[in-house]
Amino acid sequence: MKYLFDDLALAYEKPATNGRLKAQNSDFCVDEIMPIETSGEGEHLWLKIEKDGANTDWVAQQLAKCAGVKSMAVSYAGMKDRHAVTTQWFSLHLPGMDDPDFSELKTDEFKILQQARHNRKLKRGALSGNRFQIRITELEGDIESLDKKLQLIKQNGVPNYFGEQRFGREMGNLLKAEKMFNRELKKVKKQQRGLYLSSARSWIFNQILSARIKQENWLTPLPGDVFMLNGKSACFNGDGEDAEEIVKRLLDKEINITSCLWGEGESMATQEVLVLENSIAEEFKILTDGLESARLKQERRASRLVPGNLNWEIKGDVLEIEFDLPTGTYATMLLRECVEVTS
Fold it and tell me: Of all helices (H) and strands (E), which one includes residue 270?
């Protein structure tokens, strides 16, 4: 099957402005929002690191080598783009060991900003979110429409699509998922299996959301909809709820409509929404059957992404924009709605 990311529907009119993203690494800055305070003692050394043009795994390897520990002793909350300037946390498990002498690390690609001991390791997904500061240069087109589009985004949010990077180069993770489900891959490592499963589930979610955008009801409740508290994972079915109150809470961005993350088990959706989601699933039966066979449980994800602290300034042919996003969401999906970018 051929998978085309660009076929996903836009929530707003096609951008009338284009520009250049990442003319240099400092045009794309990301800072992790860490909700955990270190205790000051324990077997784990936490490091806040700023990296510029470095791969997350490579930084972890350099830290392990300098500390004289195995790579599995180093952990981090999430991956960060190589072609960017990012700050992120790492932790090293150093039981009975002194803090390493990191002065031996001679590289321009990253530097340690802060370090502290803690009694627990840093786990994947431990972040509450990320703060973005992005500069798009060489703007061309209708600049006035860009400002209006950003006002709309601030008011209503954007589709919470999984970004293109989720699916690998040329959608390779999806193609590998198909082969894995068809038993055409003889040996699949645990990490690769996880990537293929998540890409398949993400694709189904994106298709459901895209269908609702095309129907112009992605922000309009339908019979059988399931809602999620903004910034939370708790869900509730809207059947029997006061319709006017639901609409008000959506407008206030207190709650969001959700779409399905496919897996086995009974869906929380009912009526029209259940029919819609099942019809999309039927189009990609090889993926949905594979996800069920892998025993992934059916879950929900907010269909709308509401950026926090969204601010911007347009200076001539440069857009400077900053915002906060929860973990597991994609800044590129916000940019996709307001400006066509080239790297």
Answer: none
Q: Are residues 100 and 169 in the same domain?
A: no
The owner of tokens 């699916």 is 167
In this structure, what DSSP letter does residue 70 have?
Answer: -
Rg of the chain on CA atoms, in Å: 22
Q: Considering the entire predicted model, what is its pTM? A: 0.93
- What are φ and ψ of residue 180, in 5° steps? -65, -45
- Taking the C-alpha atoms of residue 262 and residue 102, their distance in angstroms, rounded to an integer, is 45
For the chain, 343 residues long, the average pLDDT of each consecutive 10-residue run is 91 96 94 94 96 94 95 93 94 95 88 96 93 97 94 96 93 94 90 94 98 97 95 89 94 96 96 97 96 96 97 96 95 96 85
Same domain flag for 286 and 182: yes
User: Tell me, what's the pLDDT at 142?
Assistant: 94
Is 264 part of any domain?
A: yes
Task: Find the angle CA(90)-CA(94)-CA(99) to the nearest 5 degrees.
Answer: 80
Same domain, 103 and 220: no
Q: Do residue 164 and residue 300 come from a single domain?
A: yes
Where residue 65 falls (left for φ over 0; alpha for ψ -120 to 50; beta otherwise) is alpha
Give the span between the Cα atoms of 139 and 281, in whole angstroms: 39
Name all contacts of 269-272 with Cβ < 8 Å and 24+ positions apart: 269/224, 269/225, 269/226, 269/237, 270/223, 270/224, 270/237, 270/239, 271/222, 271/223, 271/224, 271/239, 272/222, 272/223, 272/224
Domain range for 220: 159-305
pLDDT score recorded for residue 43: 96
Give me the number of domains the chain comprises: 2
Say if residues 119 and 41 touch (Cβ distance below 8 Å): yes
The residues annotated as belonging to the active site are 81
